[in-house]
Amino acid sequence: AGGGSLRLCSTRVNLEGINRPVIDRIIRVDHAGEYGANRIYAGQMAVLGRSSVGPIIQQMWNQEKDHLKKFNELMVTYRVRPTVLLPFWNVAGFVLGAGSALLGKKGAMACTVAVEESISDHYNNQIRTLVEEDPEKYKELLQIIKQFRDDEREHHDIGIEHDAEAAPVYSVLKTAIQLGCKAAIFLSERI
Q1: If you average pLDDT over every residue of the chain, what do you get?
Q2: Which of 19, 89, 100, 144 is most deeply packed, by most CB within 10 A?
Q3: Out of 2.70.50, 1.20.1260, 2.40.128, 1.10.10, which CATH number does the structure's domain 20-189 have?
Q4: Is pLDDT above 90 for 5?
């Protein structure tokens, strides 16, 4: 799936007639989410980078770097300010990544499954919102979000394939991480 540099959105987007509050919220939260994902994978690589699972984590991280690059571009194109919580997500993401990796490969993969499942569900909600608004008007943004959702699903599946469900207290860990993701999404959309 994806991962290569995705150049679907031109820098000359017609901003007339867009639903500003919806687009601002979507781009702000997605930028924050991709930023947080980058920090999670950075934390995992700090702990497990030289282990057998290091190349797998690096591969997923590379895709997240592409996602973040694209949302950095979209922030400029659509003139959206980032969340003021980025410094917090910087630390929280790295701590979550490193902390889950300290549980070993299975812990890191459990974190990946929890986060990527939350994010792909979140992207699905955004796709529904944009389709209800005007699928033609938001065609390029829909393409980007769909591609990134598919990448996140792929990361989820990689986590499952690499024994995420065998992590210590998997269901508790997954639930706690997903509650954190919901809170991060809620806050990053608004602040």
Answers
A1: 93
A2: 100
A3: 1.20.1260
A4: no
Q: What is the pLDDT of residue 17?
A: 85
> Region 134-154: what's the mean pLDDT?
97
- Fill in the DSSP letter of residue 15: -
Please give the Cα distance from 175 to 91 (Å, whole number). 21
pLDDT, residue 3, reads 46
Dist CA 18 CA 107 (whole Å): 42
Q: Which helix (H) or strand (E) holds 94?
A: helix 86-102
pTM: 0.91
CA angle 62, 65, 71 (to 5 degrees): 150
20-48 helix and 86-102 helix, angle to the nearest 10 degrees = 40
pLDDT surpasses 50 at 124: yes
Give me the pLDDT at residue 13, please.
Answer: 63
Secondary structure E strands in the chain:
none
| Boundaries of every domain in the chain | 20-189
* Sign of CA pseudo-dihedral 116, 85, 9, 73: negative
Nearest Cα to 26, choosing from 116, 177, 154, 129? 129
For residue range 14-45, list pLDDT tens digits in order: 778 899 999 999 999 999 999 999 999 999 99
Pair 14, 155: CB distance under 8 Å = no
